C-alpha cells in the first residue's frame, strides 16, 4: 500500500523519527523501511511534517503493522475513551468498571501515561472539572494538534480535543498580517496556529493558569513574537485594541452573547466574528444572528457567511458556530 513517507539518510533515521513523533505525525500503522542508505519513515499527516523535512516526503509502498492490542480486545467490549496527549479519559459512573477499563488501557498498546475518570461536570467561571486518577499520577500533558503542541493541565484549564476539526476549519481562514483577538483563548489552540499563519494575535483568558500555559505554548511553537497574552476579563483588558480586529474568535458558547458589545468595540472596519453558541435544534442559529445584529447596531452591516453545527451538545441542543462578517456602514 502506498503511503507518504519521509525519506532521509539512514544515519539520521532515529533523530528524524523522534522529531516526527514529537510533531504527532508519525504513522504507527505502517513499518519503517530501509533501502540502501535511505530510510523511509511513514507519516500520517504530510502537512504536519516539520518545514525543513517537507521536501523529503515521498509516496512509497509500506508494510502494514500487525494491529496493536486494544482495550476492547482485552475487555471483550468497546469502552468509551478519549485521548488527550498521553492521557486517556474515561467517563464511567461505576467505579469498578472504570478501574477495569483503566487496567485494560494500561495493558494495551495505546501510548498512555495516565488514565483519568471524570469526577464532576464542568464547573464555575473557569470551566474546569475534577478528576479521579485511575492510573499514573498526573493531570498535565502535551497535546499535539495539526502540527502544534499544547502543554496543559486538565485539572486547571478547559480543553476539548473533540473540537480539533472545528478549530482547524477556522484557523485555515486566517491570512498573514491579520489582527486577531481571541477573546477566550485558553491555552492557545486557536491563537497559536493563527499566529503561525502570520497573524498578530491578542489572546485573552480569565483563567490566569491558562494564560501561563498560553505563553509557554507560544514559545514552544515559535510564535511568541506574534501572540500577546492577557489575563483577565476581555471586557476590561482590551480597550487599547478597540477598532483594530480583522477577526474575532468567541468560543465561549454558553455566554458569548454577554461579550458581543465588546466584540463590536474591538472590530475594525471589516471584521469576521466566529461566534459559538448552544441552542435548541428547532432554531440553532436565529438567536445568535439576532444577538450579533443587536450588538452591531447601525454602525455595521452584517453578513452571515457560515452557519455550522459543530456537534450535538445535549438532547435536542446543538453547539453551533456562526461566521459573521461585519462591515462598517
The backbone outline, from C-alpha atoms, is globular
Helix content: 10-25%
Number of domains: 3
Query: DSSP helix count?
Result: 9
Evaluate the radius of gyration.
22 Å
Tell me, what is the CATH class of the largest domain?
Answer: Alpha Beta
Distance between the termini: 56 Å
CATH fold label of the largest domain: Rossmann fold
Please outline the major beta sheet: 7 strands, mixed
DSSP strand tally: 17
- What is the helix/strand order? EHEEEHEEHEEEEHEHEHEHEHEHEE
Low-confidence stretches: none
Q: Helix- and strand-based class? A: alpha/beta
Layout: helices, strands, pairs:
Layout: E1 2-9, H1 13-22, E2 33-35, E3 38-42, E4 57-61, H2 71-75, E5 81-84, E6 87-90, H3 95-107, E7 114-118, E8 131-135, E9 140-145, E10 148-153, H4 164-171, E11 179-182, H5 191-196, E12 200-205, H6 208-220, E13 227-231, H7 234-237, E14 245-250, H8 260-266, E15 267-280, H9 286-296, E16 300-314, E17 317-328
Parallel strand pairs: 6-7, 11-12, 11-14, 12-13, 14-15
Antiparallel strand pairs: 1-3, 1-4, 2-3, 5-6, 7-8, 9-10, 15-17, 16-17
Keywords: Cytoplasm, Methyltransferase, S-adenosyl-L-methionine, Transferase, tRNA processing
Protein name: Class I SAM-dependent methyltransferase
GO molecular function: methyltransferase activity
Walkthrough of the structure:
There is one protein chain. The protein has 329 residues and is of the alpha/beta class. It has three domains: 2-61, 2-Layer Sandwich (Alpha-Beta Plaits), CATH 3.30.70.2580; 71-138, GMP Synthetase, Chain A, domain 3 (2-Layer Sandwich), CATH 3.30.300; 160-328, Rossmann fold, CATH 3.40.50.150. The protein is 23% helix and 34% strand.
Amino acid at each position: 500500500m502506498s503511503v507518504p513517507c519521509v525519506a532521509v539518510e539512514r544515519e539520521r533515521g532515529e533523530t528524524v523519527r523522534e522529531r516526527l513523533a514529537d510533531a504527532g505525525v508519525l504513522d504507527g500503522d505502517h513499518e519503517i523501511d530501509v533501502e540502501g542508505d535511505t530510510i523511509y519513515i511513514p507519516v500520517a499527516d504530510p502537512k504536519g511534517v516539520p518545514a525543513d523535512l517537507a521536501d523529503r516526503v515521498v509516496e512509497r509502498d509500506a508494510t502494514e503493522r500487525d494491529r496493536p492490542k486494544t482495550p476492547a480486545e482485552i475487555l471483550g467490549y468497546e469502552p468509551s475513551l478519549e485521548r488527550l496527549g498521553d492521557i486517556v479519559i474515561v467517563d464511567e459512573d461505576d467505579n469498578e468498571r472504570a478501574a477495569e477499563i483503566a487496567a485494560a488501557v494500561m495493558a494495551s498498546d495505546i501510548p498512555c501515561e495516565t488514565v483519568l475518570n471524570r469526577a464532576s461536570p464542568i464547573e464555575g467561571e473557569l470551566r474546569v472539572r475534577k478528576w479521579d486518577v485511575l492510573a499514573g499520577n498526573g493531570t498535565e500533558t502535551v497535546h499535539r494538534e495539526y502540527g502544534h503542541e499544547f502543554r496543559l493541565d486538565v485539572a486547571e484549564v478547559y480543553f476539548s480535543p473533540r473540537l480539533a476539526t472545528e478549530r482547524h476549519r477556522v484557523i485555515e481562514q486566517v491570512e498573514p498580517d491579520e489582527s486577531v483577538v481571541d477573546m477566550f483563548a485558553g491555552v492557545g489552540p486557536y491563537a497559536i496556529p493563527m499566529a503561525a499563519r502570520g497573524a498578530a494575535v491578542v489572546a485573552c483568558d480569565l483563567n490566569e493558569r491558562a494564560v501561563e500555559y498560553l505563553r509557554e505554548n507560544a514559545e514552544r511553537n515559535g510564535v511568541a513574537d506574534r501572540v500577546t497574552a492577557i489575563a483577565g476579563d476581555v471586557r476590561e483588558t482590551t480597550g487599547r485594541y478597540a477598532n483594530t480586529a480583522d477577526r474575532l474568535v468567541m468560543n465561549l458558547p454558553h455566554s458569548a452573547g454577554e461579550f458581543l458589545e465588546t466584540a463590536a468595540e474591538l472590530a475594525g472596519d471589516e471584521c469576521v466574528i466566529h461566534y459559538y453558541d448552544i441552542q435548541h435544534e428547532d432554531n440553532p442559529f436565529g438567536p445568535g444572528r439576532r444577538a450579533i445584529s443587536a450588538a452591531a447596531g447601525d454602525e455595521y452591516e452584517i453578513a452571515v457567511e457560515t452557519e455550522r453545527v459543530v456537534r450535538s451538545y445535549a438532547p435536542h441542543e446543538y453547539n453551533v458556530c456562526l461566521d459573521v462578517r461585519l462591515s462598517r456602514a
